[in-house]
Amino acid sequence: MGYKDVYEGWKNDPEGFWMDAAQAISWDQPPTKALFDDNAPLYEWFSDAKVNTCYNAVDRHVEQGRGEQTAIIYDSPITHTKREISYMELRNRVATLAGALRAKGVEKGDRVIIYMPMIPEALEAMLACARLGAVHSVVFGGFAANELAVRIDDCTPKAIIAASCGLEPGRVVHYKPLLDGAIELSSHKPDFCVIFQREQEVAELIPGRDVNWHGFQYGVEPAECVPVEGNHPSYILYTSGTTGQPKGVIRHTAGQLVALNWTMKNIYNVDPGDVFWAASDVGWVVGHSYICYAPLIHGNTTIVFEGKPVGTPDAGTFWRVIEEHKVKTFFTAPTAFRAVKREDPKGEFVKKYDLSGLNQVFLAGERADPDTIVWAQEQLQKPVIDHWWQTELGYPAVCNPVGVELLPVKLGSPSVSLPGYEMKILDDEGNELPPGELGAIVTPLPLPPGTFPNLWNAEDRFVKSYISNFPGYYETGDAGMIDEDGYLYIMARTDDVINVAGHRLSTGGMEEVLAGHPDVAECAVIGVSDQLKGQMPVGFLCLNAGADRDHGEVVAEVIKMVREKIGPVAAFKLAVVVDRLPKTRSGKILRGTMVSIADGTDWKMPATIDDPVILDEITEALQSIGYAKG
Ligand code: COA
Ligand code: AMP
Asked: How far is the CA of 588 from the centre of ligand 1 (A)?
């Protein structure tokens, strides 16, 4: 069956399609039907089933004879460590960890925050929660204490599982002080914290609150898998929105199992037993879906890579891992390839390794520029597939479905809608636009299984952000167009979200931090184009009248504030002081025009601008930091 047949099969009978896919899951009680629409436009899938994610990702493989197969390969060029964990070992480790959590009172439905770097214990912590039906929320290590505190207050965890430290090239990330700082800042306090002590930095434990990862597991009864309802939340993952308050994306258990399992063969083209590698971080959705859950549910071997594309130790590290661990499908972000390309444009490192076992490469998380794709294709001589999705959706929505059929590749497009989606382009009034015209990218409701049914504690925000502007549709927040052949082209975000090195960040959130500086009267943050990271944030500051300060000092202070409040991941390193911000007559800051000036792209004087002269000052300010050259 080719793509067209599979897609039509879904379109003609979506529920039948997903019920078929559901047969690959081991149910405690199979669903009687697929879609639950009693609460439309809020939808759920497989709600009346009973199932356990950890059983499907771990135990069943042991029972079905894969116990000796490697489940997780840990490869850390940063610590010079390599380790393999079989499915059998994984089951035993996860059952004991879950038993210890249960002994401390963690039960089905309780939230548990996981704050860990790229070590196998992060996956074990996620799976131990899943085993108990506890709802995990993994927080990325590049966020500061304040961001962790916001998440603690929003999801009110009973426990936090953290590592003593993370390791960035040349720098130890002190997780424990960040964790202690976050708990001090938050109103909600967890009952206890479990600390995994890494040998690179042993943290001091707070008596009565902190327990040691190994110590608290001593002598406990291993926990069995607890069956949960199909619509039981499996996790909450916070992602950036328009404001500093992140959105808590919820995933339901059964839909996630069915959809992720389906994608492994049909999209990523791997069979059980194959090695699949997503070079991301457990703190992002790619890490949830494609480092932890999907490969394990599908019986693959997954790789936990603690390193960077370059510098750990060199630009050949990706190829070394692919050769050494016999990776069949590799998934990374375009930024990572741009970083490798910059250091090794001619592919000297590629030639050193045997990549014959690699069948295809997938890119996502940000726009994949054609240069990078062509470079990768030429170096690797394999299909390099751009695909599009979002934290909200949990797995690819628009893709060239290699596992079903490799469609012609069109550079600059992540290709076509997958089953579950029918991307359309609408104008502001909600009219569908013809091929080639730019508008809001939407897809009809209901979204398929495994996507987000709602936001944690924020149903109003869910409705407002995603389903109210265009009734009957899910609004992606991206703008773009579709060509005559149904290929989608992503052009921009329609909100204040930017994408820095494949990391999704809120310029609104950064503005909230800048506005907190005592000398700042007004500010704006925009995302300008960056050759390596795709986009970079740039801040504009208007100082209070009478703030007789050295501009360089204020800039240094706000840069420090963003690093302390949001975290290093914000990569906020550029800001300028200006007298005024360009605005419309109604007072709206003309961020889009500022971006065009910075990038040196064509722009038109907005008809509604209050005072055009201000744009000259903005141009000069941008030139002073190396932008607006065009
Ligand atoms: N914990 C703590 N800090 C982290 C971190 C983590 N897990 N990940 C990144 N950071 C820090 C970095 O150390 C850096 O700090 P610095 O300002 O002190 O240098 C800062 O956050 C910005 O990180 P990043 O934007 O990733 O830049 P970089 O210079 O460290 O690396 C690349 C550049 C291109 C090599 C890197 O961005 C990369 O590998 N990107 C791939 C992106 C990716 O996989 N994204 C996942 C989405 S699917
Ligand atoms: P995240 O939720 O972090 O995965 O970010 C999702 C956003 O990243 C999307 O809404 C897009 O703006 C952008 N994005 C993801 N994949 C792609 C892609 N293949 N091409 C262009 N933009 C992408």
From this structure: 32
With b for 16 or more beta-carbon neighbours within 10 A and e for fewer, the 305-329 pattern comes to bbbbbbebeebbbbbbbbbebebbb
Summarize the confidence of residues 483-497 as an average pLDDT.
Answer: 94
Domains in the chain (CATH in brackets) are 87-226 (3.40.50.980), 499-624 (3.30.300.30)
Ligand 2 centre and the CA of 238: distance in Å? 15
Report the separation in Å between the CA atom of 63 and the middle of ligand 1, taken as the mean of its atom positions: 39
Tens of pLDDT, residues 201-253: 999 999 999 999 999 999 999 999 999 999 999 999 999 988 889 999 999 99
Distances (CA, A) of 133 to 30, 73, 337, 385, 618: 17, 25, 37, 35, 53
Residues 6+ apart with CB under 8 A from 219: none
Whole-prediction pTM value?
0.96
CA atoms within 13 A on the CB side of 561: 19
User: For residue 440, is pLDDT > 90?
Assistant: yes
> What is the three-class DSSP state of 291?
helix
Ligand nearest to the CA of 387: 2
Specify the 3-state DSSP secondary structure of 368: coil
For residue 599, the surrounding DSSP H or E stretch is helix 591-599
User: From atom 23 of ligand 1, which residue's Cα is the shortest distance away?
Assistant: 569
Contact of 302 with 296, CB cutoff 8 Å: yes
Q: Ligand 2 centroid to 427 CA: how many Å?
A: 21
Q: Is the CB of 478 under 6 A from ligand 2?
A: yes
Compute φ and ψ for 301, nearest 5 degrees.
-105, 130
- Residue with the smallest CA separation from ligand 1 atom 22 is 569
For the Cβ of 168 lying below 6 angstroms from any atom of ligand 1, the answer is yes
Provide CB contacts within 8 A for 584, sequence distance 6+: 590, 606, 608, 609, 610
Q: 615 falls in which pLDDT band (50, 70, 90)?
A: very high
3-state helix, strand, coil in the chain (%, to 5): 35, 25, 45
390 lines ligand 2 (CB under 6 A): yes
pLDDT in tens, 82-104: 999 999 999 999 999 999 999 99
Would the CB of 368 count as within 6 Å of ligand 2? yes
| Percent of the chain at pLDDT exceeding 90 | 97
User: Alpha-carbon distance 514 to 499, whole Å?
Assistant: 19
- In short, whether 490's Cβ falls inside 6 Å of ligand 2 is yes
Ligand 1 binding pocket mutation candidate from 143, 179, 337, 569 (most atoms within 8 A of CB): 569
Looking up tokens 């460590």 gives 81
- Using alpha carbons, list the distances in angstroms from residue 48 to 28, 109, 224, 225: 11, 17, 21, 18
Residue 199 makes CB contacts below 8 A (sequence gap 6+) with: none
The per-residue pLDDT for range 126-136, each reduced to its tens digit, is 999 999 999 99
- Distances in Å between the Cα of 255 and the Cα atoms of 228, 231, 451, 496 are 13, 8, 7, 30
State yes or no: pLDDT of 306 exceeds 90: yes
Q: Find the 362 Cα to ligand 2 centroid distance in Å.
A: 13
CB atoms within 10 A of CB 225: 24
What is the identity of the amino acid at 593? T
Between CA 340 and CA 353 the distance in angstroms is 15
Q: What's the pLDDT tens digit per position in 150-208?
A: 999 999 999 999 999 999 999 999 999 999 999 999 999 999 999 999 999 999 999 99
